[in-house]
Description:
Layout: E1 9-13, H1 18-29, E2 33-38, H2 41-53, E3 57-62, H3 68-82, E4 87-90, H4 105-133, E5 137-141, H5 155-175, E6 181-187, H6 193-196, H7 200-208, H8 218-229, E7 240-243
Parallel strand pairs: 1-2, 1-4, 2-3, 4-5, 5-6, 6-7
Helix pairs in contact: 1-8, 3-4, 4-5
Bound molecules: NADP nicotinamide-adenine-dinucleotide phosphate (NAP).
Amino acid sequence: MFASLAGRSVVVTGASKGIGRGIARRFAEAGCRVTVVARSGEAARLVAEDIATAGGAAIPVAADIGTEAGVAAMAEAAIAHFGGIDILCANAGIFPAAKIGEMSVAEFDEVMGVNLRGTFLSVRACLPELTKTGRGRIILTSSITGPNTGYPGWSHYGASKAGQLGFMRTAAIEFAPLGITINAILPGNIATEGLLSLGAEYAASMAACIPMKRLGSVADIANAALFFATEEAGYITGQTLVVDGGQLLPESPAALE
Ligand code: NAP
């Protein structure tokens, strides 16, 4: 149905686990060549190896996307191995919890540094290569938390995820003449290592308030990312896609009874 993406070079940040690993695998299945980025080089290597075992093409890169040196190394590796960058999935993110009264400046800065500054740095580092293709694609992993909802302990996280959308809207205008689109996926609660580390009780309480009565899968997010990367989605830019099993919809708990 959609034109093939085979051969496209895709950089996926935060691809050693969770949603990023799901995105990396899905793009590899679609024939893309994937740069798997995470701070842990060993974990990234295992994902790249898995992709290769399944018949795909991937390289691991150990890089901290919150730093200029990290994103430069990431872009250089993709260029060296795959000849350029067609698609960036800026997915890496962290979500430590701290209530505002007890939150240190360092904790606030860390979340902003990875989630928001890391998004800016990743996009800026890949921009020259995305521009060369004339049909570049940038897909951000934001969240419903911040843009749509709040949750005690995640004021810094929510601000970083809403901040990604503010960044995206101006980026979409700046990049449109370059043929580059930039869009954001807003996941609800997705079963990943990161989310499951919050505990079984948290996961169960979330599943209970989702109309579809289950957490999302990484494939649910990866499929949405793949759609934004297609030729056919080329007229969509600066937009958000909520992928949450309907979690935002109920007006009150009674709506789910
Ligand atoms: P996860 O399971 O904790 O995985 C996070 C990934 O990001 C790992 O590969 C991690 O590897 C990498 N990472 C973290 N900091 C990094 C840095 N500074 N530089 C490079 N890589 C870094 O998280 P997830 O649940 O898949 O979440 C992925 C994204 O989806 C995040 O942006 C998150 O905010 C968003 N999201 C998740 C959910 C959910 O329900 N899971 C919901 C809404 C939004 P290393 O630790 O080795 O660096």
